[in-house]
Amino acid sequence: MEYASILIDFILHVDRHLETFVQNYGTWVYALLFMIIFVETGVVVMPFLPGDSLLFVVGAMCGVGLLSFPLACAVLLVAAVLGDQTNYSIGRYFGPKVFQWEDSRFFNKRAFDKAHAFYETYGGITIVLARFMPFLRTFVPFVGGVAAMSRAKFTAYNVLGAVIWVLGVVTAGYFLGSLPWVKANLDKIIWAMIFVPGLIVIYGSWKAHRQSAGPAAAD
Q1: For residues 115 and 57, what is the distance between their CA atoms, to the nearest angstrom?
Q2: Is the predicted pLDDT of residue 158 greater than 90, yes or no?
Q3: Over the stretch 110-140, which tens digit does the pLDDT of each residue have?
Q4: According to the model, what pLDDT value does residue 3 have?
Q5: CA gyration radius for the chain?
Q6: C-alpha angle 127/130/134, rounded to 5°?
Q7: CA 39/CA 27 separation, integer angstroms
Q8: pLDDT top residue among 103 and 132
C-alpha cells in the first residue's frame, strides 16, 4: 500500500516531484523521463503511469528554463516510439503462443480475423488517436501485435502518433504552463488530463456495446 500511495502522489503531483528531482540530480531527469514514457507505452501491465500530464509539465518546466526543450522532446519522442514498438513486438511474439491458434479453446479464429482486418483498415488512425487516451495507448499497440498488423504500417503510424502527441502536449505546456491561471490550477488540469480521456473511452465503449447489442436483441 505504501508503494501505491507513493505512485499516486507522484502521478497527481508530478510537477513538484520532477522539480525536486531536477534540483537533486540535474540532467539525470532525462533518463527518468525516458523510463517513465517507455514503460507506460511499452509494458502492457503499466498503463497507469503519467503520460499526458507528464508531457505537459515537462513543457512547462522547459518554458521556465528548468529543462531543455529540444533535448526533452528528443528523449520523449524516442521513448514513445520505442515503447510502442516494444509493446507491438510483445503482442506479435506472445499472441500466437498464448492462444496456441486453432489448437486452443481460447482462440477464436473468426475474432482474430476481424481484429486483423480492423487493424489493417483502421489501425493507423487508432494508433495515432490512442496516444491521447490513457490506458488505451498502452493496450492498442499490444493488440495490434496480437492481431498481426503489418510491422511497416504499425511503425509508420507509431512514429506519426508519437510526434503529434509528444510535440503537441510538450509545446502546449511550454506556452501555457507559465500562465498564472494554469499554475494556480495545475493539479486540476492534471486530474482532467487523466480522467476526461478515460471517461470518453468508457462512454465510447458503452455506446458501441449498446449498438452491437441492439441488432442481437432484435434477432
Answers
A1: 36
A2: yes
A3: 655 666 666 777 778 888 888 888 777 888 8
A4: 57
A5: 19
A6: 150
A7: 20
A8: 132
Per-residue exposure over 167-201, b if at least 16 CB sit within 10 Å of its own CB, e if not? eebbbbbbebbeeeebeeebeebbeebbeebeeee
* Tens digits of residue pLDDT in 17-58: 888 888 888 899 999 999 999 998 888 776 667 778 889 999
143, 46 Cβ separation under 8 angstroms: no
Residue by residue, what is the 3-state secondary structure of the chain?
CHHHHHHHHHHHCHHHHHHHHHHHHHHHHHHHHHHHHHHHHHCCCCCCCCCHHHHHHHHHHHHCCCCCHHHHHHHHHHHHHHHHHHHHHHHHHHHHHHHCHHHCCCCCHHHHHHHHHHHHHHHHHHHHHHCCCCCHHHHHHHHHHHCCCCHHHHHHHHHHHHHHHHHHHHHHHHHHCCCHHHHHCHHHHHHHHHHHHHHHHHHHHHHHHHHHHHHHHHC
Burial of 207 (0-12, 13-18, 19+ CB in 10 A): exposed
pTM comes to 0.77
Q: What is the pLDDT of residue 78?
A: 97
* C-alpha cell recorded at residue 208: 458501441
10 Å CB burial of residue 120 (0-12, 13-18, 19+) is: middle
Cell of 142: 499490444
